[in-house]
Amino acid sequence: MSHTVIEEVKARQVLDSRGNPTVEAEIFLSDGTIGRATVPSGASTGKFEAVELRDKNDDFYFGKGVLYAVRNIEEKICPQIIGKSPFAQRTIDNEMIKLDGTPNKSNLGANAILAVSLAVAKSAANSLNLPLYKYLGGINAYVLPVPMMNILNGGVHADNNIDFQEFMIYPVGAKNIKDAVRFGSEIFHTLKGILKMRDLSTGLGDEGGFAPELSGVEEALELIVASINRSGHDTDEVKICLDVAASEFYIDGAYHLKGENKTLKSEEFAEYLTYLANKYPIVSIEDGMAEEDYYGWEILTRHLDGKCKLVGDDLFVTNINRLQEGIKRRIANSILIKLNQIGTLSETLDTINFAKIHGYDAIVSHRSGETEDTFIADLAVGTNCGRIKTGSLARSERVAKYNRLVKIEDELGEGGMIYSGWT
Ligand code: PGA
Ligand code: ZN
Questions:
Q1: The model scores a pTM over 0.90
Q2: Residues whose CB falls within 8 Å of the CB of residue 61, separated by 6 or more in sequence, listed in order
Q3: Ligand 2 (single-atom ion) residues, CB below 5 Å
Q4: Is the CB of 245 under 6 A from ligand 1?
């Protein structure tokens, strides 16, 4: 192990689940081991995220190519890390941050840097013959996350008229991952049956949830409650989580709910969310307020802290400085963790730790543009963070993460347990 070094780094452009280009990196070690990673891509990206480098050549994938990022890996990053130990994750991540030299990784591209960062970790785990979660978390990696499963899509992830982006089911009564996945699948199929019966579309949105035209947010919530009950479960064992993705419809200081035909000020929108949380079994609200509306976040936190998880996604963008600011202002109480918002594995682990120390829950998350890479399933277990958000119970790029968790659960056997402190 101690003599194993990185011998070669390769990169290529591949496709994500929306059919857009993304970056894959491969690390070749001197002991013959390979580590490979592919990065995801968001659609409702936060303003403060690290920069995803796109070619902007209109004649090539309509500007979405990532050939510059690929070239940055092969020509700039590769010479810097060849000969280094794959176990020096933090050193390698720091080197790449330094080489990039910008606060938001806009020079080399967060997509280039992250692909290498993750591939290095995988090569190291493979070299030691350890499953990735064990490499990341050692003997203390044992908590399977409760999944927040997105079964109804709106916002920019669907073409329908629902303002909120994600409606998730959260099987808090599941005894293990296999049960959680089964609950999810049964409710998903029940919802499909109800939509069919009502002649509503059963086409899927970007994250694999249904995307029907409905009268609005409350009809979506009613449908989900009906699906939970009709599938043989109940709202004691299966709760609801929302990703409002409010930054998407916060314009000129107000929340423009087109589907609801309402324009609301921060106070009014916080009231509306509080009303929903009191009427339905909602236990978590992500991005209930816009990324820059600190005032709105303060009101929402005052209303719902203690009752709901208030999750900062666009608000915190997995960035320790933004999280620190939020903690200082006492806004939100949880953070969504997306590797590509910050751009290296080490910084992601730092943010998770920082959240934990300050009593904020961390939820490891996919992006709306995903690949078959299951890194986040191992990351959730490796950090014992207790929750994962990885989409619906359909579409292989989503299901791959659930299938990976089932395998990890089998491997851990009696040494593993699903997170139980979900409140
Ligand atoms: P995105 O959506 O990947 O399109 O940003 C996911 C989310 O907002 O949580
Ligand atoms: Zn979000």
A1: yes
A2: 20, 21, 55
A3: 243, 286, 313
A4: yes
